[in-house]
């Protein structure tokens, strides 16, 4: 990937190498593949190839997703749980039909209190239903945020809210970021989530930071959070 970014080799060669990892069982390798595909997706979101890279993601991640399934198997380790969350989140965001349907079913059961999602499945399910959700989905997530007893769950929700796609809902998330519902130190995570969520989100987040620069600067002064905000 570094060679492709430097213009030495074709990005097509990178994708061919990625395809060779379909039977890879190791979490660290998949984490690296996921990160690199995320970089490519961000670049290609400004081109006609964006939908094609989503198809590629589904093709590469589907086999490992089918092997892992949704539920833990006897004898699994911590890395298997991490890998399951990573893979299901990647497939869900890319619009993999079976993953999206199962995420919606499990989310409905979770909200209704029928079957509470395990901690390691919450982020992938949340990000999937938000990416392909509407105003009702966002309202439900904000309600879960308000009801959450643990700060860990609030932070988990804050990090994924930016996955929502519609422009008016993106604005709602950005306004929420500066509300009293979000701790000042966590506002950057919400804005960063929007910036990393989509092409529309990046533009909206950048405009939001410019429009609210004085408030944000006064809030963080010269601390590390203001530099992190600019970076994201």
Automatic annotation (TrEMBL):
Gene Ontology, cellular component aspect: cytoplasm; extracellular space; membrane
Classification via InterPro entries: ERAP1-like_C_dom, Peptidase_M1_aminopeptidases
Superkingdom assignment: Eukaryota
Keyword Hydrolase recorded: yes
Molecular function terms, GO-annotated: metalloaminopeptidase activity; peptide binding; zinc ion binding
Short name of any one Pfam family annotated for the protein: ERAP1_C
Any Gene Ontology biological process: proteolysis
UniProt keywords, alphabetically: Aminopeptidase, Hydrolase, Protease
UniProt keyword annotation of Hydrolase present: yes
Occurrences of domain ERAP1-like C-terminal (ranges): 3-231
Family, similarity comment: Belongs to the peptidase M1 family.
Name recorded for this polypeptide: PSA aminopeptidase
Organism: Chordeiles acutipennis (Lesser nighthawk)
Lineage, top ranks: Eukaryota, Metazoa, Chordata, Craniata, Vertebrata
């Amino acid at each position: 990937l570094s060679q492709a970014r430097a213009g030495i080799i074709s990005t097509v060669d990178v994708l061919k190498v990625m395809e060779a990892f379909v039977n890879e069982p190791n979490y660290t390798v998949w984490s690296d593949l996921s990160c690199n595909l995320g970089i490519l997706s961000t670049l290609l979101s400004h081109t006609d190839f964006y939908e094609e890279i989503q198809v590629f993601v589904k093709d590469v991640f589907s086999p490992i997703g089918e092997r892992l399934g949704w539920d833990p198997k006897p004898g699994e380790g911590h890395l298997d749980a991490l890998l399951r969350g990573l893979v299901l989140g990647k497939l869900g965001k890319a619009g993999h039909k079976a993953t999206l349907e199962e995420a919606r079913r499990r989310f409905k059961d979770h909200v209704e209190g029928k079957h509470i999602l395990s901690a390691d499945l919450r982020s992938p399910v949340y990000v999937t239903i938000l990416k392909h959700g509407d105003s009702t989905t966002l309202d439900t997530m904000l309600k879960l945020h308000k009801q959450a007893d643990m700060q860990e769950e609030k932070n988990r929700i804050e990090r994924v809210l930016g996955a929502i796609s519609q422009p008016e809902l993106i604005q709602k998330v950005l306004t929420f970021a500066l509300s009293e519902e979000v701790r000042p130190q966590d506002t950057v995570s919400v804005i960063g989530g929007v910036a990393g969520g989509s092409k529309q989100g990046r533009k909206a987040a950048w405009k939001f930071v410019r429009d609210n620069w004085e408030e944000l600067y006064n809030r963080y002064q010269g601390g590390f959070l203001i530099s992190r905000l600019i970076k994201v």
